[in-house]
Design brief:
- With 598 residues, the protein is an alpha+beta fold.
- The chain has 13 helices and 30 strands.
- The chain has a six-stranded mixed beta sheet with strand order 17-16-15-19-20-18, with no helix packed on it. The chain has a six-stranded antiparallel beta sheet with strand order 23-22-21-25-26-24. It has a five-stranded antiparallel beta sheet with strand order 5-4-3-6-7.
- Strand 19 and strand 20 form a beta hairpin.
- Helix 3 packs across helix 9 and helix 4 packs across helix 5.
- The protein is elongated.
Length: 598
């Protein structure tokens, strides 16, 4: 419905006003950028504010969600709200309304709010600018910003708090906030949530009502019941919310091969509501859908997912001015599997449904490119269910139907060529299947993080090579099991499956495909190379054992025992007696496990 769609537009812009209160540092654009993100309860609200560069946290990288907001800070926020998101130019008052604000930094804001009836002080001639603002005090300020008249609505006098709460609760200002009661100090976490809620509230206006009897005519004012005003976001900031599915960006293109230019994102927009404005056709539900390129940056984790962001209302679909960044919708449900199970089994195990025909058919894309209907992609999808391949199932509207399956084949490889001079170049050998090669470092994500001879995990997405040094662990192989082609290695008491994705098999290196690393190597300490999903791709000797050798320079017999002079792997030379239980012969012949004693 149109009204619900309008309500969905809210959230963001007005929060530019919070800059004065909350912006202390710079750089954060998402809740995840704060070092104390796990302590933030109202994550979506803070994310919206942060992505609009409204809340950037503190100098130490925290957001400080439990920190409190002062009365002066709240007064400035309201002034900025009423000025459409900009810091208003305010003059100096001739007479101070309060005894404790004459030299305060927020004096002009406080006086402005006093004039409009937004604040009225403590009743003893003071304002207490550095005192904590309570939940109900902040709500009163927000209500007046929405257009409610403090005097008419009873937001002054002895029962002001009761009247404020009676209005704030049904409007939803207190939704998703946590506090003991409305006398509690407003925390930074709750401030974000209250403002987030406020932007979805309609603004109000009053009308005069005339009454008369035989002798007199009188007037009164009351709220209009048929107000046509929009939300706070629409009325004060002239902005709208856009939501849709990311189908292409600078990383990859789900519709074709390649990718878009830097800082462009193609979005299948699902909430256009004005055909003339957006140039789109409505579906049976009255919803306008159109694919549009926006000047905004997204990454791999947004592809195939539902997102939302904000644009200036007066811009067109082709040159929309994007405000802030893209935010992932909480309607996305994502399941990742690395097993060899068919798609249908993975879906069933996670209460998901695959749509195998029609316009809404589940799309399957390899390495984020060239999505096709699932019914066009091999009967049992054998080539996509290799153990160790990453398979991402995306339900982007939380209806249990999978819109996209992204199948990513990450290879274990070795950097066999690496040139950092000039444009740079790299070659990654991933076994008999071939190589990844780039003649320009700009075509490699992670180029500066690797070097020649590194063992890496690599994949080609959108025409660019993504490469990372392979994660390793050192441990002792305690057991080896093969069952139906599935290999399990037990390393230091933990079971690990091996990947079946073809990768670098060692060549002349002291490294072996994990699937061939059998019982011959039991009880040996080794380095295990892991690929995506925690699967073992290859096994090599540890640094200590790989170079545990000695070159015999001379040998002889003392009459009692054999003696050798050797050059060790660290470059030193030593003379050693061979123990009597050794199979080593003084002439250099003998078994590989000869024991050397001093």
């Amino acid at each position: 419905q149109m009204r619900n769609l309008k309500r969905a537009l809210s959230l963001a812009l007005a929060l530019v006003m919070v800059v004065s209160m909350m912006v202390v540092g710079a750089g954060a654009v998402s809740v995840d950028d704060f070092s104390d993100a796990d302590q933030i309860v109202n994550q979506e609200a803070v994310t919206v504010l942060a992505t609009l560069n409204v809340i950037n946290g503190k100098d130490d990288g925290t957001y400080d969600p439990t920190g409190t907001v002062t009365r002066a800070e709240m007064a400035k926020m309201i002034c900025v709200i009423l000025n459409g998101g900009s810091d208003p130019v305010l003059g100096e008052s001739v007479t101070d309304s309060y005894t404790d604000t004459s030299s305060h930094w927020a004096k002009a804001y406080i006086e402005y709010c006093t004039t409009l009836g937004i604040v009225a002080g403590k009743g003893d001639g003071t304002f207490d600018p550095n005192g904590n603002v309570t939940v109900s005090e902040a709500a009163k300020m927000v209500l007046v910003a929405l257009g409610y008249n403090a005097a008419i609505e009873g937001y002054t006098g002895g029962n002001w708090q009761i009247n404020v709460d009676a209005r704030a609760n049904p409007l939803g200002l207190y939704d998703d906030m946590s506090y003991a009661n409305t006398n509690s100090a407003l925390t930074r976490d709750n401030a974000a949530q209250m403002l987030y809620n406020a932007l979805d509230c309609d603004m109000v206006e009053y009308e005069y009502v005339f009454t008369s009897d035989s002798n007199t005519i009188s007037t009164s004012t009351q709220l209009k019941s048929d107000s046509t005003l929009g939300t706070l976001l629409e009325e004060k900031f002239d902005a709208v919310k856009v939501e849709g599915i990311v189908v292409a960006n600078e990383v990859a293109n789900l519709n074709t091969s390649g990718s878009l230019d830097t800082e462009r994102t193609r979005i299948l927009v699902t909430n256009y509501e004005d055909q003339e404005y957006y140039g789109a056709a409505a579906n049976d539900d009255g919803i306008y859908t159109r694919t549009v390129d926006f000047s905004v940056t997204t990454g791999m984790n947004e592809l195939g997912r539902k997102v939302f962001f904000y644009v200036e209302k007066e811009s067109t679909s082709t040159n929309a001015e994007v405000l802030g960044s893209v935010i992932l919708s909480d309607e996305n449900r994502v399941v990742t599997s690395y097993s060899a199970d068919p798609f249908t089994d993975v879906a069933d195990d996670n209460n998901l449904d695959l749509v195998t025909s029609g316009d809404e058919a589940t799309q399957v894309a390899r390495n984020y490119n060239n999505a096709e209907d699932i019914d066009d992609n091999a009967q049992e999808y054998d080539e996509k269910t290799v153990k160790g391949t990453e398979k991402i199932f995306i339900d982007n509207d939380d209806d249990s139907e999978v819109e996209y399956i992204i199948v990513n084949t990450y290879r274990f490889g070795k950097v066999t060529s690496y040139v950092s001079s000039g444009d740079g170049s790299i070659t990654v050998n991933y076994g008999t299947d071939g190589t990844f090669t780039a003649d320009d470092a700009d075509d490699v994500v992670g180029f500066e993080d690797v070097s020649r001879d590194d063992y890496v995990i690599a994949i080609e997405i959108g025409g660019r090579i993504h490469v990372n040094v392979a994660e390793t662990m050192v441990g002792t192989l305690e057991a080896y099991k093969e069952d139906g082609g599935i290999v399990t290695l037990t390393v230091d008491g933990t079971d690990y499956s091996t990947t079946f994705v073809q990768g670098y098999d060692g060549g002349s290196d002291d490294i072996k495909d994990a699937n061939t690393y059998g019982e011959t190597y039991l009880n040996n300490e080794a380095t295990f190379y892991l690929t995506v999903g925690g699967y073992v791709a290859a096994v090599g000797e540890t640094d200590e054992s790989a170079y545990r050798y000695a070159l015999v320079l001379a040998s002889g017999n003392t009459g009692l025992e054999d003696r050798v002079r050797v050059a060790l792997s660290d470059g030193t030379i030593g003379t050693y007696d061979i123990s009597s239980n050794s199979d080593y012969d003084a002439d250099g012949a003998g078994t590989d496990d000869a024991q050397v004693g001093t």
